[in-house]
Amino acid sequence: CCQRLSEGFFEQYQRARSQFVQTIAELATRPQNIETLQNAGVMSLLRPLLLDVVPTIQQTAALALGRLANYNDDLAEAVVKGDILPQLVYSLAEQNRFYKKAAAFVLRAVAKHSPQLAQAVVDCGALDALVVCLEEFDPGVKEAAAWALGYIARHNAELSQAVVDAGAVPLLVLCIQEPEVALKRIAASALSDISKQSPELAQTAVDAGAIAHLAQMILNPDAKLKRQVFSALSQMAKHSVDLAEMVVEAEIFPAVLTCLKDPDEYVKKNVATLIREIAKHTPELSQLIVNTGGVAAVIDYIGDSRGNVRLPGIMMLGYVAAHSENLAMAVIVSKGVAQLAICLTEEPEDHIKAASAWTLGQIGRHTPEHARSVAVANVLPKLLELYMDSESSEDLQIKAKKALKNILQKCTYLQALDPLLQDAPSNILKHVVGQYSKVLPHDTKSRRLFVTSGGLKKLQEIKAEPGSVMQEYINAINNCYPEEIVRYYSPGYSDALLERVENYQPIP
């Protein structure tokens, strides 16, 4: 009788523990419950259950801790201070696959919040245990471990180096070759997090053969996998010419361009980012992209996109155009200026306008032909407006001003300059007048238009310091006209004429 009573008592105790951890794990899925659980001291109640004799109770306790730690850094800090991490690390080596997944989840949930919390995970010896998990047979355990390693590596180069030193990279490259799509995604993401930190860390992934295996997946039908693949390739390509060339040598062009039309916006954005990171390095890499139809494809992509998704495409065109006259002309011929003018006008975000202004400046700065192609798109008044608008961000004002100067220094298309002559502040006006002074002495038609458009009259109203560059420009322009014409359009001349009329004594 006593034995049955004892067995019943322990069964009841076990059921109570099981019900408790299951309830906590369920409550932890809803944000509105987190504060109440935290105030009730739930961490100290869960900790002993990680050592429970019943495996399902251990696993559920770990799951509950992970959900709590994932919610905010205070709870993640509580896991660290509660001395829970060493037990989790020990269990990664000793327990079954279900517990290993839950334990890796807790480590990831703690590490994600800050470099300090990620360092606490490293300090408790988690890296070696997580790397061992990458060699497990169960793909779910590998996935959980790869996820935790990526969350540690993403914070800074020091933590990323620690992940590399633990031997994670070759195993992550093996993981992207596994058949499970979810594992491929997380492994590619972790490689991206490692590679972004420095050229040396990116080289580690490249040396492990990551590029070739990632490149094989660029046309995979799974959108979430493609997001991570393109992210990882762009993080490798961004650091140096050599790394960018290695990515290109994996023969990703022109296949990668089809993904600029992918239904998934993140895929498209990551593809555009990859192309940008390759194009920025050298004229030769940019030319390769042009030759495969990349510039035209990116311009179409900008036209089909809105908001931040456009940004890497806009920047890519700027990098291409900056390299040489011919590459800038390739952007013009593909009708890139018209799309950039639309972005400059219709995008509400200042940083996108600033990128558009910068790119237009890179296109227009090469020759008068380049400058004219930008000027005829009527972007000069818009650039001036953005520069003078007190509501524009400082970065937008700087980039709009720089773009204006770049274009004005080459622009000989005077019709586009007329609006600026009327409205520009003195620091921009000097460049406008300078261009008139170069063109008017050699162009009869332009001299006539300058008078009829009101330009000559406006010029006489400018108050320039004697001997200044501006005064030299004005003198050069005035010398293109008869003295009486210049005098006619000078301020006060009509008053002087009227006074002569009033004072004139007719001859009887």
Automatic annotation (TrEMBL):
GO terms for biological process: epithelial cilium movement involved in extracellular fluid movement; filopodium assembly; neuron projection extension; sperm axoneme assembly. One of its GO terms (molecular function) is microtubule binding. Gene3D superfamilies: Leucine-rich Repeat Variant. Keywords: Cell projection, Cilium, Cilium biogenesis/degradation, Cytoplasm, Cytoskeleton, Flagellum, Microtubule, Repeat. One of its GO terms (cellular component) is microtubule. Its main location: other. It is found in: Cell projection, Cilium, Flagellum; Cytoplasm, Cytoskeleton, Cilium axoneme. Interacts with SPAG16 and SPAG17. PANTHER family: SPERM-ASSOCIATED ANTIGEN 6, SPERM-ASSOCIATED ANTIGEN 6 ARMADILLO REPEAT-CONTAINING. Important for structural integrity of the central apparatus in the sperm tail and for flagellar motility. This is Sperm-associated antigen 6. It comes from Callorhinchus milii. The lineage of its organism: Eukaryota, Metazoa, Chordata, Craniata, Vertebrata. The gene is spag6.
